[in-house]
Write a structure and sequence with these properties.
globular, six-stranded parallel beta sheet, alpha/beta, 43% helix
């Protein structure tokens, strides 16, 4: 059952039975030495894998959270070069419920949105970095240009997006198509203001200027 690989949610804010621990395979030091890694590295890798979900496991997670009466918070994005603005945004999103699920644009999806030079980091690397944050319980990678299909299937209690989007906009770059889906099933949309002065694009431009100045 996919539910067997779900890690326990941290810092629950509602009452109910906590999620089950992900099963941890136990390795002895001999087998770890044979593969050239430590037991702790084995365990860390397995925990990360158990929290990187495919769509079926994400659906199972959603069902389990409903049964426990816990609120699922959902956000999505590229998260190509993680910066303090991302960290504060994700912490704020996590505070709105019991479990934060981040839907991560696939490499192909990022290229379609950002251009042929992006992403800087692969989806697997971006997912691992996100899962190292205390605010993020789970990551699911998606291939579409928007997260509408995932939102429609999972129906999170809270859908969160950054301040450059407007759930009431009907055209232009501020349109938030996922907001219409959330409205259909009666969920909540929360817009979290951006932290001024932080963006992946700004970091890349600064790095390019520094390279030119050398």
């Amino acid at each position: 059952s996919p539910a067997r690989v779900l890690a326990r949610a941290r810092r629950p804010r509602s009452q109910g039975t906590p999620l089950r621990h992900a099963p941890i395979r136990i390795y002895d030091q001999a087998s770890a030495n044979h593969e050239g890694i430590t037991v702790k590295e084995h365990e860390k890798e397995l925990m990360t894998i158990s929290r990187l979900l495919d769509s079926d496991a994400a659906i199972t997670l959603r069902k389990e959270l409903r049964g426990l009466g816990q609120r699922l918070v959902f956000t999505n994005g590229c998260f190509d070069i993680l910066h303090v603005g991302h960290v504060r945004y994700l912490e704020a999103a996590r505070s709105l419920g019991d479990v934060l699920l981040v839907a991560l644009n696939s490499d192909r999806s990022v290229r379609a949105l950002k251009g042929p030079t992006r992403p800087v980091q692969t989806a697997s690397d971006r997912a691992e970095v996100l899962l190292a944050l205390r605010a993020v319980e789970y990551v699911v990678v998606f291939d579409d240009g928007t997260a509408e299909r995932l939102v429609r299937v999972l129906q999170p209690d809270v859908y969160v997006k950054g301040g450059d989007y407007d759930p009431t906009a009907i055209e232009g770059t501020r349109v938030l198509p996922e907001a219409r889906v959330v409205a259909e099933y009666g969920g909540q949309v929360v817009i979290i203001p951006f932290v001024d002065g932080y963006s992946t694009t700004q970091i890349l431009r600064a790095a390019e200027r520094a390279k030119e100045d050398q």
